[in-house]
Every structure is written in structure tokens, then in C-alpha cells.
């Protein structure tokens, strides 16, 4: 694994810039999706309004969130192998948070499918709390990546 240290050479800042561009796309989508689900929840199952939310959620996931998340992971891991994992506590913490956040994304994607079938398997209050997750993750991950406190 150490053999990859420095493998990006002069491309490193370009890869980092691309990483941040797709981080913004991914996070923008992740701020929108649980908000869409709050509106979707208020629409009656089977109604014309609900059909619009089903389509909006599907397109947001397929066109923005899923591709952006895949590219963020690929570029982030490319950067991580370039700098190496040893002694980088901030990177380990960041990876743990981003891994859980990817699971949160999967949970939301699963919810959109259940909602589309007319199921409402959670309270609106839970969804409103879930809306805060992307903000908290952004704060934690940016501080870890920029300040590198440990
Ligand atoms: C998906 C997995 C991810 C991996 C493996 C990853 C890994 C990395 C690595 C290794 C760096 C280089 C740090 C440096 O050059 O000092 C970096 C930079 C950065 N990442 Fe990520 N990252 C991921 C996702 C994210 C997410 C979701 C966010 C924001 C919500 C984010 C925000 C940043 C920021 C702000 C920087 C710039 C740090 C700096 O140069 O000061 N990353 N990332």
C-alpha cells in the first residue's frame, strides 16, 4: 500500500479539486433528498402530486446523488492512497463518518422505494431529524479534512 504514496504526482491538486466539486454535488443532493421525502410524506399515496415526488426522488438519486457519491469515493480513495493511511487519525475518522453517511444514503434510497409503494414506515418527526444529518456530517468532515486536529 505504501508503494502508492505520491502516485498522483503533479495531478494531486487537480484530483483534490475534482474531489471537492463532486463532494458539493453529492452533498447538494443529500440536502434535497430528505426534504423531498418530507413533502412526499404529505402527499396522499396514489395521488398525482405523489407521482411527481416519486419521479423527482428517482431522478435526483439517479442523475446527481448516486454518480456523485461514486466519484467522491473513487477520487477520495485516490487521494488517500497518495498520502498514505499511517498515522492519519483524521483520515480514519473521516472514512468512518463518510462510510456511515453512505449507509444513510442507502437508507434514504430505500425509503423512497417504500414511499413509492404507498408505505409510510416512519414518523414525520424522524424524517425532520434525519434532515439535520447532512449538516452535521458536513461540519465534522470539513473540520477533520481541513484542520486535521489529530
Ligand atoms: C467518500 C470518501 C472520501 C474519502 C476517501 C476522502 C478522502 C480525502 C483525502 C485523502 C483528502 C486529501 C486531504 C489533503 O490533501 O490534505 C480529501 C480532501 C478533502 N475532502 Fe475528502 N474524502 C471523502 C469524502 C469527502 C466528503 C463527503 C467531504 C465533505 C462533506 C469531503 C471533504 C474534503 C475536503 C474539504 C478536503 C480538502 C482538505 C484540504 O485540502 O485541506 N471529503 N478527502
From TrEMBL:
User: Which pathway does it operate in?
Assistant: Porphyrin-containing compound metabolism; protoporphyrin-IX biosynthesis; protoporphyrin-IX from protoporphyrinogen-IX: step 1/1
Q: What is its EC number?
A: 1.3.99.-
Q: Which UniProt keywords apply?
A: Cell membrane, Heme, Iron, Membrane, Metal-binding, Oxidoreductase, Transmembrane, Transmembrane helix
Principal location class: membrane
Membrane disposition: Multi-pass membrane protein
Matches recorded under InterPro entries: HemJ-like
Subcellular location(s): the record lists: Cell membrane
The residues listed in the UniProt record as binding heme, with positions renumbered to this chain, are 19, 94
TM segment ranges: 20-39, 60-83, 89-108, 129-147
Instruction: Reply yes or no: does the keyword Oxidoreductase apply.
Output: yes
Which cofactors does this gene product need?
heme b
Q: Report the co-factor binding details.
A: Binds 1 heme b (iron(II)-protoporphyrin IX) group per subunit.
What catalytic activity does the UniProt entry give for this protein?
protoporphyrinogen IX + 3 A = protoporphyrin IX + 3 AH2
Describe the subunit structure: Homodimer.
Family, as annotated: Belongs to the HemJ family.
Q: What does it do?
A: Catalyzes the oxidation of protoporphyrinogen IX to protoporphyrin IX.
Q: What is this protein called?
A: Protoporphyrinogen IX oxidase
Q: Which organism is it from?
A: Sphingoaurantiacus capsulatus
Q: What is the lineage of its organism?
A: Bacteria, Pseudomonadati, Pseudomonadota, Alphaproteobacteria, Sphingomonadales
